[in-house]
Design a protein that fits this description.
It holds the Pfam family Phenol_hyd_sub. The chain is of the alpha+beta class. The protein contains two helices and four strands. It has a domain at 17-70: Nucleotidyltransferase, domain 5, CATH 3.30.420. It has a four-stranded mixed sheet with strand order 3-2-1-4.
C-alpha cells in the first residue's frame, strides 16, 4: 500500500443531534409498532419495537420528524448485501 504525498485532512462529520426521525416499518401482533429511529442522519438507523403508547411517548420526548414509509421498488429497496434489516432476518431460515 502506498501513502499519499500530502497528509489527508480529516474533517469531522457535521451531525445535528437535535434532529431525530422515525419511520414506521410495520406492526406486530398485539399492536406493537416496528420502526426505524435516527439521530442526526436519517439513513443511519436503529430498529425498534414499542407498544403504541410507548411509541407515542417516545416520539413526543424525542421531538421526532415522522418520515414517510419507503416506496416499494425505490432505490433503497433494491436487493443488495447491505440492504437488509433485522426484521428481514426474522423471515429467513438459516442453515447451520
Amino acid at each position: 500500500m502506498t501513502r499519499p504525498e500530502q497528509p489527508v485532512e480529516m474533517v469531522p462529520a457535521t451531525l445535528d443531534t437535535r434532529k431525530r426521525w422515525v419511520r414506521v416499518t410495520g406492526e406486530r401482533a398485539g399492536g406493537f409498532i416496528e420502526f426505524d429511529f435516527a439521530i442526526g442522519e436519517p439513513d443511519l438507523i436503529v430498529e425498534m419495537i414499542l407498544s403504541p403508547e410507548a411509541f407515542a411517548e417516545f416520539c413526543a420526548q424525542n421531538q421526532v420528524e415522522v418520515l414517510q414509509p419507503r416506496e416499494p421498488g425505490s432505490a433503497t429497496d433494491e436487493p443488495s448485501d447491505w440492504n437488509w434489516s433485522l426484521a428481514d432476518a426474522t423471515q429467513t431460515r438459516f442453515k447451520a
